[in-house]
Amino acid sequence: MAIQNIVSALCKYLAVDPNSVSTGSGSDLKSLCTTILKSSQNGDAHVNNSELMKRIDFAESFLENPDARSKVLTDLNEELITKSVVLGNGLTPSPADVIVFSAVHSSVIGLSSDDRAKLPHLFRWADYIQNKVKFGELFEKILLEKVEFAAPLSKPIKKVEDSNAKKTVQEANGASSSGTDSKGKKSVDTQKKKVEVSQATAEKKKPLEKEADKKDEELSVSLLKIQIGYIRKAWKHPSADSLLVEEIDVGEAKCRQVVSGLAKYCTPEELTNRRVVLITNVKPGKLRDVMSQGLVLCASNSDHTSVEPLFVPEGAKAGECITFSGHDGKPEEVLNPKKKQLDKITPHLFTDDKGVATFKGVPFMTSSGPCTSSIPNASIK
């Protein structure tokens, strides 16, 4: 059944007629996959891709050795720390991703929450593949709990108010039954007004709660526009010894001028002709009378004795936007300083134990791989 699923998924992905592939007894996975690859549009290139062939061997070995699957999944999780896809430098799934996903799907979908927590990069990749590749009904959806988008529970205001209102009505009814004099009638009217005011207050609070929840949900890294920049020129700030000024190309008609607190850690010469990662939708403003139009992201150890701009992988171009798997929202045109969005997001930016820059463990990805730092377990600001 597992081999049939791999064959069906690969045929669907490569638009190959599954009826042209015989899956009878004696047909091994490698020969079946090779037949499908040969029949695809880029057949020769696929068949001659040694890395793709290795992934077929991986899938075959995974299916044939159930006792070793736990370790294999752990190794795959480690490999995916710095990748969005199994094979390739960018974000586009390959036949290798389809084959590996199809092979491991039945083994990962039934894992407990504790076991899933040990394989965050594997599940991030699996979620990305199942949402990017059209498998149809071949595979049951792997459901992931994405805690960063979970809105906090609101207080049960309605129940409290309804309880008070009910109690007030009962009191009013009691007062009414105790007599029919004018004072009794006034008491009932007063109590009814209190009920109406109480209910109206509860109704007003509902939209306010929803609005607050929505604001919390929107505090995602996708609000930030993070781009690759190329420093054309750097110089010392004219009136602040701790600051440097950089002229940064981000693929726009005109370079941006950015002020950074890097004078203690880098010389202007070290920054010139270097690629950096910067947030470009912060509100422009002056730092010691010099205009700044961005924020260069740097990794820092706990006591700030070591600070460095993030490294950009070879091949990534100026202006390219950093992506985060699973976070596909649209960046704000300009971040609103009053909402303190940046202050709430940056605590979740850090490098992992291998120095890979992440947001809540999800790598900063470019078309050529992840951004990194020589400082592991560092904060990023």
From TrEMBL:
Q: Where is the composition biased (Basic and acidic residues)?
A: 182-212
> What name is this protein filed under?
tRNA-binding domain-containing protein
Write down the species: Castilleja foliolosa
InterPro entries per the record? Answer: Arc1-like_N (IPR053836), Glutathione-S-Trfase_C_sf (IPR036282), NA-bd_OB-fold (IPR012340), tRNA-bd_dom (IPR002547), Tyrosine-tRNA_ligase_regulator (IPR051270)
Q: What is the lineage of its organism?
A: Eukaryota, Viridiplantae, Streptophyta, Embryophyta, Tracheophyta
UniProt entry tagged with the keyword tRNA-binding: yes
* Coiled coil spans: none
Query: Which residue ranges does the record annotate as region Disordered?
Result: 161-212
Q: What SUPFAM superfamilies does the record tag this protein with?
A: GST C-terminal domain-like, Nucleic acid-binding proteins
